[in-house]
Amino acid sequence: MEPRADETKPSPADAPGRVPRLTAGLVRNTVWNTAGRVWLVLLSVVSIPFLLRHLGKDVFGVLSLTTIATSYLGLLSNPVSSGSVRFLAEAYGREDWTDYRRQAVMGFRVNLALAVLGALCMSAGARWLAYHGFAIPPEIREAGAAAFMLAAAAFAANRVAAFFQGIPCSMRRFDLSNAVSLAVVSAGILASVGVVWLGGGLLAVAAAQFATACLGVLAFGILAFSLLGRLPGSFARTPRGPISRELLRFSGVLFCSQVLCQVGMLSDRLLVGMLAGTAAVAYYTVPTRITDRIPDMIGGFTAALYPLSAESKGSGRQVELAAVYRNMVRLAMCFTGLAAAVLIGAGDGILGLWIGSDFSRRSALILTLLAAGTVGRGAAGVAYAVTTGLGLNRFLIGMTLLTALIAAPVAVFTVLWGATGAAAGMCLGMAVQTLVFDLLTRRRIEPRWSVAAALAPYAQVAAAAGGAIAAARLLIGQAAGWWRLGAQLLLIAGLYFGIGALVGLLRRSDVRWIVSRLRASRLGGLAVLIKAGN
After folding, report:
1. Could you write out the three-class secondary structure of 192-249?
2. Where exactly are the structural domains of the chain?
3. CB atoms within 10 A of CB 38
4. Which residue(s) pair with 32 in the sheet?
5. Chain centroid to CA 100: how far?
6. Segment 17-36, tens digit of pLDDT
7. pTM surpassing 0.70?
8. What does the DSSP 8-state code read for residue 320?
9. Which residue in 130, 400, 436, 486 has the fewest CB atoms around it within 10 Å?
């Protein structure tokens, strides 16, 4: 007998078919997300020194400030985009295609309105930001004001593109989402480098970023409508109605949590920009652009957990989430520990050979402190994805309130020691926040848990990273050339994995699990996840 339209569900790969397991596609999506971030890191390695050298420290600092300003502006619409993904994923888990379309229509309306509102607000305040908000040199203030206005227009386009990107994410099609995202972001970076190579300056780069944002709207829009067209039924039969109160309530929770996160996580850059000038922003933001890639890649590593957690709530399979959580925390900590070990052990050599010895002297300690603070971000990223997907509103607000408190040590240390103090404040604040977030999340979702078992990944990472850094410094010392730096990086990575395997951070079952899941056309097998997690 043929199933009715409302009894079928599109598989993550193609047309409607069998309902996939909760963990179906988890490894594929995680690999796609992480690989995309790695590619962007490689592009940044090439583009940042070029832009910094040709634009100068002050102009590069202004571009960094436009990015920070739009990050804060994103607080207006980011929560609605994320909230839409959660409710879309829940409808997807229930196979309720009418509600799925209704949520899509509502989310688009709200996102579009907030994108336009945010762009208008930033455009209105562009001159104030350039002339009074930041310590921008007088000779580039006018161009800076125009750059802020172009950044506002790019913000509106990016917000619409972000909503369209949520459609494949809610269906766990991160492979498609990341393929489009990689193409668009790569085009943006290459366009910025290209206009500077042709002789353009601050406004040319800002215009290139706006054009790339428009390209993102087109690309993600085509992808979203293509996937929506495969669902049973049609938009013509989708009931129209008022905006869901539940969506607005959850978006409000996300708004509060993201405001608090932004206050904590971007306070260092704002304080450096206000107190030390645009040149100091350049010395500080280059290390932050390196270390920001660590949680960014962790976001790719954990992004598949957000719709998966929401779907588990919609389908009543939340108990399975505990084993997945334990396994993903350990693997995420393994990755952040490796990245931190490399940056701490070879950061001064990387900056010296990449940008210059003078820049390295001013920024090496900043890079070391920020890298040390990111070690726990792996566990925090997993915790945030799971708790947000489950809709633990009050818990989320409490944890992000703790994140906002990071601004306190940052402010004090910045006044005392400048940019280096800001980095020390971030290191201290992030270490405390991520540890508390992980422990309390385990308590919420795991029926049986112990503090000793929860702290084990942190001790294992500390042992592996500390041993690898000390041994590499003893055997090679300071890197004096690219070949010696490459040998140092390989030695740190090899020692890290070796010590990590000895202390139980990395297991042979991890490699077998990942390889076997990647070879499968349909990824599943919760028993394998549980075995790897235990």
Report:
1. HHHHHHCCCCHHHHHHHHHHHHHHHHHHHHHHHHHHHCCCCCCHHHCCCCCCCHHHHH
2. 26-243, 274-527
3. 11
4. none
5. 26
6. 343 454 455 555 556 666 66
7. no
8. G
9. 486
